[in-house]
Amino acid sequence: MRFLPHTEEDRRSMLEVLGKKHVDELFSDIPRRFLLKPGMLNLPEAASEAAILRHFGKAASANRHAGEMRCFLGAGTYHHFVPAAVDHVISRGEFLTAYTPYQPEISQGTLQALFEFQTMIARLLGMDVANASMYDAATSVAEAALMARRITRRDRILMAESVNPRYRAVTENYLSHNGGLPCTIPVDAFDKDDPIPSLARSIDKQTACVIVQNPDFFGRVHELAALRAACDEHGALLVVAFSDATAFGLIEPPGHFGADIACGSGQALGIPMSFGGPHIGLFACRQRFVRQMPGRVCGMTEDAQGRRGFVLTLSTREQHIRREKATSNICSNQGLMCTAIACHLSLLGDTGLREVAMRSAAALDSLIEQLPANIATATGAHYNETVLRFPSPQIRDAFVKAAREADIFAGIPLETLTNRQEQAADLLVATTEMIEAEDIADYAAVLRRTLESTA
């Protein structure tokens, strides 16, 4: 919608109706020390609409989106292919404008889309029930920690350092205002030992849950049986997080490891990177914990005439029930993102999802095979993401710059995400089905040229 400013005559007319002489009189109850003073905002002079559009268009042209580049970025947001059919469906007015389906009699289409989405996510994650839905992966993990505390009536939350730092930061923020006791177990990106046994040893009788990511933030794939056994021994819940849900087209999903709660990002399933959002959080749990699950659950039922219908079965938020009984104050059902994911998964099917996963993993294997000998790679099984270690931070930074000039997003400097300066020579890289053999060859060629020029 265009901004249509009021004229001076409009303002005078409105002030006369209000019995005021100046617009400042409308804010006379605000102490003057809180009012903005001339020059405080440091704004430029007013400009025409055409000039404003030209200014912001020029600024936007400096952005380079993943579709223009060969994208090896990851860390929670991935460049997967999104079929045109997905955008076509979610651009329809009934999906684009739909909000919470308060009136089921006129919201059957929206409710069915959410029901199908939940069914697909529960099946993908190997869990009993999924909700609709969470803002993003970080808030999804935080809600899982709060849910575990309600179920176990314990306060101690264990998190592996291999959980995405952003997920950990948001979880710690949530817990800091609710009396929780977060405890992070150190994990190194290049640790040759499996971190799961040490994580299992840290569980005690005060632990509400242990949160582990699989594949983890560094792309490593873990066997979680020992962690499940340790949780059972001490009565703690097992929470399994994830960043790229396409992984479960190739590796075992959280439910197959006995996860009590599975939570993470759905961005990889039909939602573009979009410079960081909007994205969506996925959340699923065991059936017996469903009444402690945040968000909404859509169910299928029959009316008095035996016709199939869809309803909100559970809505455990403060807008629907007494505030003190609410499990969460999450307000959006992320309906548009849910519909996008449901469309995308319908188009892929089981075979298509597995193909995406295999191509993504194979691209990483090919990249590692073509790396020069003096570029170290993390050990152990990985899915489509890993850490590269360069001889020095200067060489790594020179490579990232040279790659960008060659239309390649080479990866993310690891210390910018972890705040650990000992990782200043590390680069987190990810591959998806969008990475072709030519892209990998160009990546390796730029890397070799950089090493030669800095030798």
Spans of at least 5 consecutive residues whose pLDDT stays below 50 are none
**CATH topology description of the largest domain:** Aspartate Aminotransferase, domain 2
Which value, in Å, is the CA radius of gyration?
25 Å
- N-to-C span: 56 Å
CATH class type of the largest domain: Alpha Beta
The DSSP helix count reads 13
Overall pLDDT metric: 91
The chain-level structural class is alpha/beta
CATH superfamily grouping of the largest domain: Type I PLP-dependent aspartate aminotransferase-like (Major domain)
* Biggest sheet, spatial arrangement of strands: 2-8-7-6-5-3-4
β-sheet strand percentage? 5-15%
Please give the largest β-sheet: 7 strands, mixed
Number of strand segments: 15
Silhouette:
globular
- CATH architect. name of the largest domain: 3-Layer(aba) Sandwich
Spell out the key features of this protein.
455 residues; alpha/beta; Aspartate Aminotransferase, domain 1; Aspartate Aminotransferase, domain 2; 2 domains; 7-stranded mixed beta sheet; 4-stranded antiparallel beta sheet; 13 helices; 36% helix
